Amino acid sequence: MNLAPILVTLGGGLLALILAIYFWMSASRGGRRTQAVFFTILAVVLLIVAAGLGWQRLGPNASSQQLVVVPRGPVQVRVLVALPVEPWVREAARQFNEKGLRQDGQPIEVQVTAMDGLAALGKFDRNEFGALTANQTRDQLSAQERQKLETTFPTVWIPDSRYLVELANALYKERLSRDVFLTDGEYRARPIAVSLFTWGLYSSRAAALEKKFGKIDWQVIHDAAIAKGGWPELGGDPAWGFFKLVVPNPRRNVGGLAAMIAAAGEYYDKPNISVAEVTDPQFQKWLKELMGALTDVGGASAYTAEDFALFGYSVGDGGQLLESDLLNNMAGIQKRWADPLVIRYPKYVTWFDFPFSIWMGPETTAAEKNAALQFEQFLLSTEMQKLAVAQGLRPVNNQVSITAGDNLFVQWQSQGIEAVVPRTTRMATPSRDVLQALLRWFDLNVGK
Amino acid sequence: MSRRKKNQQQVATRLLVGILGILLVMCVVLGITGISVLIESFRQPGQPAASPEVNTHNATLTIAVSPEKAVLLKNLADKFNARNLRTPDRQPMRIELIELKPDEMVEKALAGQAPFQALTPDSSLWLDQLNYRYAQAQQTEPGAIPPRLTGDGVRYAVTPIVIAAWENSARSLGWPDKAVGWTALQTRAQQDANFKWNHPSTAHASGLLATLAEFYAGAGVQRGLTAEMAQDPKTLEFVSSIEKTVRYYGEGELTVIQRAAQEGPKYLDAFVTPEQLLVAFNTGVFGKPPARLIALYPAEGTLWADHPLALLEMPEPTANQRRTFQAFREYLASAEVQKEILRAGYRPADLSLSLTGPDSPLTAANGVDPMQPKTTLQLPSPDVVVVVQNAWAVTKRRANVMLVVDTSGSMRGEKLANMQIALRTFLTQIPSDQERIGLVEFNTTVTSIIELDTLAKNRGALLREIDGLQANGNTAFLDAVRTAYRRLQQSSDGERINAIVAMTDGRENASVITLQQLVAEIRAGNQKTPVIIFSVAYGSDADMKILEALAEASGGQVRIGTPETIRELYKILSSYF
């Protein structure tokens, strides 16, 4: 235990006391009393402080009690955010914090932690954030557990897609018999931006494929993936090697799961996919052949759009990726690899809507929940939605357009970006069983 | 009152006022300190009394860094620390570095007592392996989301793994007219006994890549390598035949390229290394290059060293350490640092920086092509990678190593005791019991010989001999080396690496053979069965002229050790076999 503060204050107090005695003695011999009074007051104050510190550090409840009522700090909004919207949300949080807004008289501080939606779901599943059990209250926690809750438990989760929220609710419904993220009311999970999954291919590779097969779709990609002779067989340069598919590892990035759902939609030519269909041996054979073209089976990266840009055509000729990620990397790819990407929209489209989901359990305070609402409103403001568009995301605020101004959507129209995507069919949100069947299949057949 | 007495009173009064002033200042300072401590303690609601061992406010982040970029990271960490950033609760954000090989990072993190909170190995494949093994230990069911020991890695610099070849060697392999690949290199090494190449052990990304390429070739596939294929006897036989052409292994890419800078083309004809080190070599970072190295981007595909930086989640870092991580991550992504990373020969993560611009060292003149590589080798899943690593330990080129140990009188005391520890460490570090090790002890004459045999049979005898070493007499170093050399020549085992690790701490003064005679014998004998001599100068009195001559004649190395470093040196030397 560190006793230095007590000893230092006590020393100061005793010194002041000695001086006070000296001056009182001087005063009794006709000296001035002002100094004597001053040192007396100083000695009393310091000795009281020393006693207070001593009580706090050495008293019977030293480890768990404070001497006086603890003043309240800022209201923290801890936001767990999906990787594709992290730069936007982080910048928004910075601007929000600078505004100095308050909740219940206390300043609000938004803290952002980036985490892939599936990774976060896994942490919720394993209760690594330390959520309370059905019979537990905050008062029952030890000081250490309470501190962990107050510094790390997420106030808000912004996963990639609302189906992750539904999966989390399903998990907690079994444990707590209630939803932890609401689907209606003031605190409901609300999308803050949208991004679609599109085909992104290096233009040299796209030209070869389109020449041989016509319009790019999952079947074309499958046929390219199984070409035993690699690119020479597909009409490309032998130096390109085999056709390399870029799809995130669904164990590391929920985008990979979205890609498998989209592939299933095209395979069956319908937007609703059942467990029976994803477990059909014919479909699984087709999917395995497709996944055989992945460059990194182990999933070295959680974030494949970054791979696509950093490692260029060496790791992937093309793949189905998030439009916003592709848009953010278009210029960099063109600069580094001298071969721009082209964008093609699939027939069955999947998308992420990044729901702002406020945790509704007792792990966070009412003030934190309300402060989170303030931050949500800030993200939905016109100014922040424009910032989202600047980062390649589609806004959810109708006041903001993606066709006006010099934004990434306008800038890359020549490469195939479409502001309005009218010819596609929206894939229905798959059930939890379908998602788990696909993940299990991936574990056992590709990523094992 | 006399004037003198009056003056004395004035002096005493001034002295008293001065003392009182000082005491007043001390009171105020002590008081303010105490009060501020009390106020600070009120500002930390709900904090348990922190023990000295666990500082929950700690904002110092220790990062494990792989050796090849330790210098760059140290420079960047120093600059970051000089910024004196602080957390919201006024704790100083500091970065400290610890240099570790990637496989050591994995082992320490899995053991749960890692002396670091973040890591930046040379490749993400180590993070995959770490998380894979951690999830396995947690016994995650298929379909469940596996737990991870690290957060998502961020990248600040990447570089492809290439085959570095001297310009003449590169041309002889077909560069620049045709694409050169792993097959061309392996074929050349098998057909030309004088062709010397090397790759690091699978503890490095470049070593793992080279080994993976051999397994792909051995399995006869270019994608979809499975554990079954990797363990197939035919694949193992093929890999073994390729590995027999490896000159020797070693400490890692950095040491290999440093030696290439010292010794030039006679050292190796080709070796596997990250592109960045090749650029550094050609731009004179390791001294004036003896010749130009060319980066050959394997036609079958390569891998990228992507240098991820990731936070270790167990034991959980403090909130302030997370803040420091975030601040350092942002610092690494800043334009100023990204330009520095490019100048160091890496490809920066910032795509707005041109690799072909005037500030970029990634030029044809420096032996590289920034538009390469065109394709990568498929990286199998972590379980297959583990199988390949384990299988490599079986298929790697085996070694015959004679340890020559000086026990002359000058070795008495701490020197000999530390030498004994070093020798034991050497035996412990040798990865396989199938390696053959022998020992020659000498002082005035050769006093004891443990004949070459596999460690499985020889370990006990070697340890007994090491434990019983006693210092006495003169130094017949050359005679001892000749004894070891003749043993290796007599075994005439060209399939294995044949090496002598010869240590002495003093001047030669008792041998029958002369240096010239021994050098001539080595030069002649090595035509038949090459034996490499690693000469170890132990302390400052060792005869460097003799040690250098022996190393030079055999294509070996001279290493310098002290009682403080000898154990680490022998540990390093063990990585060559």
Strand order across the largest sheet of chain A = 2-3-1-4-12-5
- Mean pLDDT score of chain B, rounded? 89
Most extensive interface, chain pair and sizes: A-B, 94 and 76 residues
Structural classification of chain B: alpha/beta
Helical coverage of chain A, percent range: 40-55%
Strand content of chain A: 5-15%
CATH 4th-level superfamily of the largest domain in chain A = Periplasmic binding protein-like II
Distance, first to last CA of chain B: 96 Å
Give the termini distance of chain A in whole angstroms: 50 Å
| Largest sheet properties of chain B | 6 strands, mixed
Q: What's this, in brief?
A:
The complex is a heterodimer of chains A (448) and B (577). By secondary structure, chain A is of the alpha/beta class.
Secondary structure topology:
The complex is a heterodimer of chains A (448) and B (577).
Chain A: H1 4-28, H2 34-58, E1 75-81, H3 86-99, E2 102-103, E3 106-114, H4 117-125, H5 143-152, E4 156-158, H6 162-176, E5 190-191, E6 195-202, H7 203-213, H8 218-225, H9 231-234, E7 245-246, H10 254-268, H11 275-278, H12 281-291, H13 304-310, E8 318-322, H14 323-337, E9 341-344, E10 348-349, E11 351-352, E12 355-358, H15 366-380, H16 382-390, H17 408-411, E13 425-426, H18 432-445
Parallel strand pairs in A: 1-3, 1-4, 7-8, 10-13
Antiparallel strand pairs in A: 2-3, 4-12, 5-12, 6-8, 6-9, 6-11
Helix pairs in contact in A: 1-2, 4-6, 8-12, 13-14
Chain B: H1 3-42, E1 60-65, H2 70-82, E2 94-99, H3 102-111, E3 118-120, H4 124-137, E4 154-155, E5 157-166, H5 167-173, H6 182-191, E6 197-198, H7 205-219, H8 227-231, H9 233-243, H10 253-263, E7 270-274, H11 275-282, E8 293-296, E9 304-305, E10 308-311, H12 319-333, H13 335-343, E11 347-348, H14 382-395, E12 399-406, H15 414-429, E13 436-442, E14 446-454, H16 455-467, H17 477-491, E15 497-504, H18 515-528, E16 532-538, H19 544-554, E17 557-561, H20 566-574
